[in-house]
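Team,

Forwarding the record for the chain on the shared tracking sheet. I've put the sequence and predicted structure together so nobody has to dig through attachments.
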Amino acid sequence: MSAKIAFDEVEVGTELPAKSFPVTRATLVRYAGASGDFNPIHWNEKFAKEVGLPDVIAHGMFTMAEAIQVVTDWAGDPGAVVEYGVRFTKPVVVPNDETGALIEVSGKVAAKLDDNRVRVDLTAMSAGQKVLGMSRAVVRLA
């Protein structure tokens, strides 16, 4: 596979289609099983509050993985992402109800680089707060 987006057709400022990702307690339990991260702050409300959190929070790596989907869906190939990094700024708090939380992610091309690569800056929000800072991906386009 390779990126479906042509480098020559992209300009700085090009906005990627935004996406929203619902997160429930069941989502976190499934992620814990897949990742092996069974830290109780991600599933035990009593424990999370005892350590000073407002409630159970989503795994940082889960939040990071959800956010990059905006880029991989846009590029058409997960292998097109050659670099990705974030800073975790606020936790995604996941209440114990049918709704859970929502991670809303948008992105735009911030720079055109050499070798058909672009830098995409992402914004990830939950409950009106930015949950990832300095969220950037370098993508090799067609």
